[in-house]
Write a structure and sequence with these properties.
homodimer; alpha+beta; four-stranded antiparallel beta sheet; globular
């Protein structure tokens, strides 16, 4: 038996509003506008697109009826974020709604069937970069707010909305942001919808995230590319060295061979399941490699080759300590005659979310009301850098209640949002805001 | 004591012409025009530039006074070549002058200090892609012809000029060309200037070239890129597999570890010198590698990674046999769960040039006259695919008398031609044509 929501926190009118086809159609159109911004934070040439998405959102939050909607300037040249709030529920808790409007890179030639920034309706999905990660998901928060303000003219609790523009590059300025604006994001809990469900009709709340370390390894052997006919066999080829160094990261069975990597975590000799290996076990992956010339027959020995790699970390693994172990390992396997440079670009700690908190209880009730089944608590293999930072700095739990599906193709070509899950997500957030009320 | 040239083959007026500053200045201007064509045969987008260079050359050969200058259509969609001749010396031998007007790829961002296709005078050099390899070098042939025809109105022997447009991609249509035009290139000897001297003032004639094999290795593990947070640790990363497979090509000491690779050649356990390793010993080099994403923080596990590699082969090594050994090796080291595809794009055999031939003797005399010292006979580590084919098919030796210097940066950024060597090269070819006369 689920406890009733307190008086004055009745979501029924908002939910009825969210079910009207005309409203749904309008929302899909609005989300389509948001998805046209190529807000790729990893690529400097898309700086203006990131900013344009922020401006569009600031306007949208103001039109919803939130107060003080504005761009908050980025720190140290980072992109702006978007903030607005509604604080007219005295005595009620305040929930911070977090989302990120920046997206992963996407180019049609990577295998997209449609232009990644021309949102396309395919059956019950919208295909576009950012459709699920994370524009479509945080948009569900905004439409829950929309539904309340258009019907009741008020929200059941206080909310702050903060939308970030550099999550996909590891939120490098978030700590400085929290230093500069120590009170801006203060709340009783944070809600983040940037995770996936176990499957259709199987809602889940994520209670652990892997940490991450992103780094570059560059191997340089000469001052300039040389001709492989004239020098092949007599000079060191940095591609060969890089391949050998990267191959040394794992043993033949795929076990990580960096000394001390497993030091702080249980490393029983048992075989882990696929699910375990991608959620509660650490991993190191080379995400990209480049060197020399592959577009034609240019027989060079390049002066340099490089790889970008990332490690996924589990509790007890500290990114700085792991970075140091990787640095030592690469130093040990660097042969004479080359210069290897290992550079960390970003790191974030693994996160565990406490389950026993009023906001988490409210989330469980909200999911159960909206989906008819209680959520599963799941461990995610991904990393949402701000979740760790927000939880540690704001001292309140981050409720990871996401509405993505495992086949949303996030970070991959043909990313998509399943609309039935999106609309159910709106209802879930609507219930959540009511359930948070005292 | 060097024997005199036969009567009627006096190069003195041509040589005096080649030394006049006004003529040299005009030639530098002409070469500058030729170097502006971005005639990169490896890149389809430069097809029109390759053709434009051919057309410019056909016009230039006609203006020199050669007969029948024309574009010869390429075979199977290959680029056209350029042919012209002068055959008014009955009873005298015929020499085929070969050169190639296509060039290696070059982009300013690769480390060029100037635009690679805006030839720039820097001290006593011209900096441009193709300045030394091979536009500047075969241009010395043309200017020797120019000098004779402007002074004597005739050449001491018969010549055929054939300029090719796909040497840098391994002359893939040359065999078919020789099948289709069996008589066009028939001659008593071939002269190729596409090699380098031992150093300034140290002319050399190359008497062996390494063979070559160019191939791609592609490793594919999935249908599409996936997110390394969600899947890292649980799926096979094709970059890891590719690195491991490429690392297996050599042992720790750099010795090639492909079974049977050294089978037909003496492989004494002694240490080879650097010069030996780059000329008379075989080599395998990865010339390029690509996979995933290195331009930003895109944490993907790509579906595919690929490398382009080349082997340099020495006498007794057959490219087809070596290709098969590489294929077997890669098959043996391909782990379960991935598909590895090994594709040969071109191969050519190693070449040895006979030294005891009238044209070779003429070359030795010409070099000695022009430089004051006899040439060294050297072994080159490079590959000039047409040299092997021309020698085998035309049954006459290819005299490899080049005027490049070891620091010409061929196949690398800031390629350059040293003008003193170029002008001395013109005189050497002028002497050579006279010395070939009976």
């Amino acid at each position: 038996m689920i406890a009733s929501a307190p008086a004055g926190a009745d979501p029924s009118r908002a939910i009825a509003y969210a079910r009207q086809p005309a409203n749904r159609a309008r929302w899909i159109g609005q989300l389509g506008e948001l998805l046209t911004f190529a807000s790729i934070s990893a690529l400097p040439k898309h700086r203006a697109d990131v900013r344009a998405a922020a401006e569009w959102l600031a306007g949208h939050l103001a039109r919803l009826g939130l107060d003080g909607s504005r761009l908050v300037p980025g720190i140290d040249g980072g992109p702006p974020s978007v903030y607005a709030d509604w604080r007219h529920a005295p005595g009620q808790p305040t929930v911070l709604l977090y989302g990120h409007f920046d997206v992963q890179p996407a180019e049609q030639k990577d295998g997209w069937q449609t232009d990644p920034f021309r949102p396309t309706r395919v059956g019950e999905t919208i295909v576009a970069r950012g459709a699920s990660d994370d524009k479509g998901q945080f948009f569900a928060h905004l439409k829950a707010i929309d539904s309340y303000l258009r019907t009741d003219g008020r929200l059941p609790i206080n909310v702050k909305v903060w939308l970030e523009g550099e999550e996909e590059v590891g939120s490098p300025h978030l700590e400085s942001f929290l230093d500069r604006y120590p009170d801006l994001l203060r709340a009783d809990a944070t809600l983040v919808s940037d995770t996936e469900m176990a499957g259709r009709g199987q809602p889940s709340i994520v209670v652990s995230l892997r940490g991450m370390l992103i780094a570059d390894l560059r191997v340089r052997s000469g001052a300039s590319d040389v001709h492989s006919g004239r020098f092949g066999g007599a000079v060191i080829n940095p591609i060969h060295v890089l391949c050998r160094m990267l191959a040394s990261l794992h043993d033949q069975s795929g076990h990580i061979a960096v000394p001390g990597f497993y030091q702080r975590i249980p490393d029983t000799p048992r075989v882990f399941t696929s699910l375990e290996r991608r959620t509660i076990r650490p991993a190191i992956d080379v995400n990209g490699i480049a060197g020399g010339y592959v577009a034609g027959s240019k027989t060079v020995i390049p002066a340099e080759a490089m790889a970008r790699l990332s490690a996924r970390l589990v509790p007890q693994q500290d990114p700085r300590e792991i970075a140091e172990k990787l640095r030592c390992h690469f130093r040990a396997v660097t042969p004479a005659g080359v210069r290897a440079r290992f550079t960390i670009s970003t790191g974030s700690r693994p996160t565990t979310i406490p389950r026993d908190h009023p906001a988490m209880h409210a989330a469980v009730r909200a999911v159960t009301r909206a989906w008819g089944v209680p959520p599963r608590f799941t461990c995610s293999g991904g990393t949402i850098a701000p979740v760790e930072a927000l939880q540690r700095r704001l001292h309140v739990p981050v409720v990871l209640m996401g509405f993505g599906l495992p086949d949303d193709n996030i970070h991959a070509p043909n990313e998509r949002l399943h609309l039935p899950e999106f609309f159910r997500g709106v209802e879930t957030v609507t219930h959540f805001l009511a359930e948070c009320a005292r």
